[in-house]
Amino acid sequence: MTKPKHILCIAPAPSDLSVAALLDEQGIAVELTEASFPETLKAALEHPSRWDLILCDATSHVDLGVDAFLEPVRQSLDASLVLIKAADSPLTRNFALRLGAADLVARDDLDHLRMVCERELLNSAMRKEIRELRESATAATRYPIGDAVMLPTIKDMSPAGRKRSEGHDERPESAVQALPAETARIRALIDAGGLTLEFQPIILLRGGEERLGMFETLVRLRDESGHLLMPGEFLQIVAAAGWMSKIDLWILRRALATLKEMQSGGQTQAVLFINVATETLRAEAAAKAIGAFISAAPITPGSVVVEVRKSAFTETSSAVSRLARMLREKGHGLLIEDANVNDCGFLTSHRDIITHIKLERSMMRGLVERYVSQDAVNDLVRCAKDAGMSVIALAVENAALLPMLFSAGVDAIQGHFVSMPYQNLMYPSIQRVESTTGPAWRSARAKD
User: Fold this and answer.
1) Which of 192, 242, 243, 251 would suit a FRET pair with 388, their CA atoms being 20 to 30 Å apart?
2) Which domains does the chain have, with CATH numbers?
3) Which pTM value belongs to this model?
């Protein structure tokens, strides 16, 4: 028999809501518990892991001071908070998001209520699974935010990995030692804490709404001498060894932590662009975890853009659709990182989920060397913008490109011409920035 989901109802009595009947129609059994007074709410939250969903009357959220009750248990809470309002209430979804709620639903909009409850129960289940996977590891193989991703952790989301964390490693040490020399070297560098993130600015090329602090998240690996290896020097080895999905999760968790730090430090408009490999989307558990981490992150709506390759749409179409849906629910974006001049049909057919595109590196080179026509680029950019997408030019290395990109209608540019990556904005060294310099994302005006 399916274990019932536990829903905490703050102020709205269970009898006032039809959620149990609505979810029962979908085959979801629930148990509703009412907490309409401070004493009952405090008692209910003494066991935060019990709850799969919290429904709260929007007015009572303020009257009861619900935030004060949730704050001490927030780190142990896997349930989403959904606010319920009267049909004539002027409260908006943006207001609910600022209060930390996952959504705002009108009391009499039963279809919306059912949909939101289903979605957030699924999110809660994923958070619980991720928490259990992390806590199943031993203290030596856990990966707290400031530590390196260890190779036992690289396997920790598979059933085999969980067996290993319990002391049942089906892969003998001799097999580990038998890794090809370069693969073993990369593994040793990762084990030593060599993975590092840099953040390269993306600069607006055109006027319009100002968007401060857009950064591309770039992964690097420190070698034995402390020099940084570029992605081409180690990511192919990581992919061949089957570690890509766990590296992507490492990158995502640390990028989200950095983004939270940036926004807490005053850069409320900061946006991070984060790449997810097609290999990661092929791994179902990892693909779901990507969406769950972003959904649960305490960051500003619209401040994450996930980058994928076009191949993901054919090789992992269901994973891309699921990820796009979760991003859209939080106002975040999905970017195609390898758009080419022949892709108008592709963009048009996926206009409902793609929000950004990047013009690939070879297109920039082709413009400069005249084997890609300006008209072809103009047509692609026009097609993307007609579909409601923002256009970013990648690998802008010299000034010759600027008039070409501007005339094509490109929105923003990225590359060494506008800025090298910030090497003093790295993770985890972001937490050790000297107070005399201040965080690198602070504007010159903020420093004055």
Assistant:
1) 251
2) 5-134 (3.40.50.2300), 190-447 (3.20.20.450)
3) 0.59
